[in-house]
Amino acid sequence: MELDPREIDPYPYLSGIVTPRPIAWITTVSAAGVVNLAPYSFFNVFGDNPAIVVFSANLKPDGTKKDTLLNVESGGEFVINASVARLAEAVNLTSKGLPHDESEVPLAGLTLTPSVRVNVPRVAESPAHLECVVREVKAYGTHAGAPNLVIGEVVWMQIADAALTDGLPDPRKLQTLGRMGGTFWCDSSRGLFEQARPG
Ligand SMILES: Cc1cc2nc3c(=O)[nH]c(=O)nc-3n(C[C@H](O)[C@H](O)[C@H](O)COP(=O)(O)O)c2cc1C
């Protein structure tokens, strides 16, 4: 099959081919002080000097901005909480589109703990955290689904001792999650598994 991404909806193909994708589980704080938490798999690390991460928050079907995007624009900071196998259900649950003034943190039964370098808190249950400041936000249109690339610099890193071997992250202990196409996810012990998005 050959496909022109401008002629069809390329999403199922792009998100099925570019796999597994890491999942940034992102905390931000709104202008009113509400802590937001949501997963973003259009995400990766793109440099280490400086330490640059990028994720994309697509505009909602009505063309408005997701809470994470609103908050990084107003607050200029975010925290990437590692999304790991034992938290898979909670990660999925926090993709629920709650109103801007409601936090996903209690919904998923999670707790917050302060960060070191930014004013955005960490998810305590997550074993690793990247504290980030926003370098740039690049919008690709104002239509539904338009990508907004958030480019951030990591200013502090934390990883639980239990996830280390000889002082370095050990994938057998950290067990990060990957997003595959459709409803498929993966992790290193289960391989592929399915989780439908919460209604
Ligand atoms: C595993 C997973 C990955 C996701 N990745 C993205 C993404 O990269 N970009 C995006 O705009 N939405 C993504 N979503 C959907 C958002 O999480 C969802 O729209 C959420 O409600 C946004 O929350 P917010 O408005 O609190 O930022 C993803 C959902 C899941 C379950």
Description:
The protein has 199 residues and is an alpha+beta fold. The protein has a single domain, classed as Pnp Oxidase, Chain A (Roll), CATH 2.30.110. It is built from 5 helices and 15 strands. The model has no long low-confidence stretch (mean pLDDT 97). The site of flavin mononucleotide has 18 residues, from strand 3 and helix 2.
How would the blueprint of this fold be written?
Layout: H1 11-17, E1 21-22, E2 24-29, E3 35-40, E4 43-48, E5 51-56, H2 67-75, E6 77-82, H3 88-93, H4 104-107, E7 112-113, E8 122-123, E9 128-139, E10 148-159, E11 164-165, E12 168-169, H5 171-174, E13 178-179, E14 184-187, E15 191-194
Antiparallel strand pairs: 1-13, 2-3, 2-6, 4-5, 5-10, 6-9, 7-8, 9-10, 11-12, 13-14, 14-15
Bound molecules: flavin mononucleotide.
Outline of the structure:
This protein is an alpha+beta fold.
Number of E-state strands: 15
Across the major sheet, the strand order is 3-2-6-9-10-5-4
Main structural class: alpha+beta
Strand percentage lies at 35-45%
- Could you list the spans in which at least 5 consecutive residues all have pLDDT below 50? none
**How many domain modules?**
1
Shape: globular
Question: In this structure, how is the largest beta sheet organized?
Answer: 7 strands, antiparallel
Series of H and E elements: HEEEEEHEHHEEEEEEHEEE
Q: In percent, how helical is the residue content? A: 10-25%
Label the CATH architecture: Roll
CATH superfamily: Electron Transport, Fmn-binding Protein, Chain A
CATH fold-level assignment: Pnp Oxidase, Chain A
Q: What's the rounded overall pLDDT mean?
A: 97
Question: Using only CA atoms, what is the Rg?
Answer: 16 Å
CATH class descriptor name:
Mainly Beta
